[in-house]
């Protein structure tokens, strides 16, 4: 009789917790589940649901522990494996998440959520074609699965299947007209096809549906900037602080106010600081000079690899390495907000020629290593940081680049990171590579100074060479990063840069052939 009362008590407590959970009262529900577990430690549902609450409360490790305990009690419940996979996916443990989804599917092949989430994990590790297959299975099981249609479209966009991607977004929107994220992602696909008016209309629809959707404002800003509408673009670009989790974590809680461009800086100290990639910092450090002309003392904070390069940068009074103690200041401003503060448009981009230079000491070291010059020298950079979200569009295969290089020139690799396969290709071709010896950007700057032309994809070295006034050929995808604009072979940011763009066939071979032709014709390459 006592045992029955105990069981009844546990059941009642669990039902109470379940009701509270369904109503969204997570803390109260969790307390009820904890009381259940205090009476019956191996209560499967209480363990599982307390793990779900831990996940909902941003406690992923506790969630994994609780859900794993539930699985140990009963390993044959598909949704529990799916939930475990979801927590792993949140932690970016994608391979482990896929294994959990596979276990869920083995138990119940009809569980559409497992197929869908498996697709999310596969895309996150850049297996977009495999992700599409998982989304297809989810849609076959549930044709009205709007999220599966939209994320399938995202994977198609990875593969540059733009028309099919737009069709997928349209299907998702037909099922769920208020699906704001699908509208703005559709706008990205239209941007990649260079259809700006339609792209902006898609972002505007997303914003109308969800006025707080930072992603839509950010995407609209990229569209405006790409098509040269800079002033409106800079304003919306400020949504990056709400859109980007990494930037949110890096946001500085300064006591002093932000400088927005209108405050008088005469006699004031302003802290400027890097916020994004090395290339961004190189491109926008030029604004320090403009801040200085307003009467300010300028403090510039940058990452260690840029410290020696930026030593002596005009307009900077104090250069500080990121992470070091900062001097007192009256205002602060992140570097990529300076174009907004100065109301930058295409007509007034600050571009008074080279503003970075290599040091004589570093040049002397590298000149000795390179030896005497027997042929014109070309510096090569064929890929960027693989962690960058859009790297798939900008980076090239070294093998493909090598097929188009004229044999009459001396090539120097300026690539910092290289794979073992790439090192073998370089060695076999007699191309010198110093990646392991490039301590920082001051070394790279010295090498840039010792070559005649730099050939690069859109990465930090391209910005460095441009900022130094070095003749630079940049290979760009059909849909380039916003800063390179469209339909021009020059850049308002760097006078010495020539842009080589993909055609709408989105192939690299014609781009490399045009670069090779210009090298052979002596463009930027002096006679030896």
Description:
The protein is an alpha/beta fold and 528 residues long. It folds into 3 domains: 2-245, Tetratricopeptide repeat domain (Serine Threonine Protein Phosphatase 5, Tetratricopeptide repeat), CATH 1.25.40; 254-341; 360-520, Glycogen Phosphorylase B (Rossmann fold), CATH 3.40.50.2000. 54% of the residues lie in helices and 9% in strands. It is built from 27 helices and 10 strands. The protein has helices at 2-22, 26-39, 44-56, 60-73, 78-90, 94-107, 112-124, 128-141, 146-158, 162-175, 180-192, 196-209, 214-226, 230-237, 240-243, 245-250, 278-284, 287-293, 304-310, 338-341, 360-370, 391-394, 398-402, 420-429, 441-449, 460-467, 509-520, and strands at residues 269-273, 297-302, 318-321, 331-334, 377-381, 410-413, 432-433, 453-457, 472-476, 497-501. It has a 6-stranded parallel sheet, sandwiched between helices. The protein has a 4-stranded parallel sheet with strand order 3-2-1-4. Helix 4 packs antiparallel against helix 5 (78-90). The relative contact order is 0.06. Residues 1-5 have low confidence and may be disordered.
Could you state the CATH homologous superfamily of the largest domain?
A: Tetratricopeptide repeat domain
Distance between the termini: 102 Å
Strand order of the largest sheet: 7-6-5-8-9-10
The level 1 CATH classification of the largest domain is: Mainly Alpha
- Helicity level, as a percent range? 40-55%
CATH topology of the largest domain: Serine Threonine Protein Phosphatase 5, Tetratricopeptide repeat
């Amino acid at each position: 009789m006592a045992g029955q009362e105990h069981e009844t008590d546990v059941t009642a407590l669990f039902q109470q917790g379940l009701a509270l959970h369904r109503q969204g009262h997570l803390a109260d529900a969790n307390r009820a589940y904890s009381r259940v577990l205090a009476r019956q430690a191996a209560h499967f549902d209480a363990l599982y649901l307390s793990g779900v609450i831990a996940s909902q409360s941003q406690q992923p490790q506790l969630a994994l522990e609780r859900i794993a305990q539930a699985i140990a009690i009963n390993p044959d419940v598909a949704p529990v494996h799916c939930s475990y996979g979801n927590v792993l996916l949140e932690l970016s443990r994608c391979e482990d998440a896929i294994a959990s989804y596979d276990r869920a599917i083995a138990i119940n092949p009809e569980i559409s959520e497992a197929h869908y989430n498996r697709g999310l994990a596969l895309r996150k590790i850049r297996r977009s074609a495999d992700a599409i297959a998982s989304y297809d299975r989810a849609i076959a099981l549930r044709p009205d699965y709007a999220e599966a249609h939209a994320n399938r479209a995202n994977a198609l966009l990875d593969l540059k299947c733009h028309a099919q991607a737009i069709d997928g977004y349209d299907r998702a929107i037909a099922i769920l007209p208020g699906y704001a994220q699908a509208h703005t992602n559709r706008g990205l696909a239209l941007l990649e096809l260079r259809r700006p008016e339609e792209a902006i209309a898609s972002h505007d629809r997303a914003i109308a549906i969800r006025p707080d959707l930072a992603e839509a404002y950010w995407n609209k800003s990229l569209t405006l900037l790409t098509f040269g509408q800079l002033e409106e673009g800079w304003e919306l670009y400020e949504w990056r602080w709400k859109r980007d989790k990494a930037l949110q974590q890096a946001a500085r809680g300064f006591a002093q106010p932000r400088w927005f461009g209108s405050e008088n800086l005469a006699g004031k100290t302003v802290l400027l600081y890097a916020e994004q990639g090395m290339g961004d910092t190189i491109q926008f450090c030029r604004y320090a000079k403009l801040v200085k002309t307003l009467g300010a003392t300028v403090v510039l904070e940058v990452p260690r690899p840029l410290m020696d390069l930026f030593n002596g940068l005009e307009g900077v009074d104090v250069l500080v390495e990121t992470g070091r103690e900062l001097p007192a200041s009256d205002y602060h401003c992140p570097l990529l907000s300076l174009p907004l503060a100065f109301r930058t448009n295409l007509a007034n981009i600050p571009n008074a020629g080279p503003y970075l230079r290599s040091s004589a000491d570093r040049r002397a070291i590298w000149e000795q290593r390179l030896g005497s010059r027997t042929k014109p020298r070309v510096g090569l950079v064929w890929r960027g940081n693989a962690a960058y979200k859009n790297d798939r569009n900008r980076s090239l295969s070294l093998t493909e680049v090598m097929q188009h290089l004229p044999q009459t020139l001396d090539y120097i690799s300026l690539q910092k990171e290289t794979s073992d396969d790439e090192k073998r290709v370089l060695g076999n071709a007699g191309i010198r590579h110093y990646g392991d010896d490039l301590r920082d950007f001051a070394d790279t700057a010295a090498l840039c100074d010792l070559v005649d032309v730099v050939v690069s994809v859109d990465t930090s070295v391209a910005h460095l060479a441009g900022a130094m006034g070095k003749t630079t050929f940049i290979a760009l995808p059909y849909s380039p990063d916003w800063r390179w604009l469209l339909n021009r072979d020059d850049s308002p940011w760097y006078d010495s840069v020539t842009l080589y763009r993909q055609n709408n066939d989105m192939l690299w071979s014609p781009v490399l052939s045009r670069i090779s032709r210009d090298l052979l014709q002596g463009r930027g390459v002096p006679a030896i």
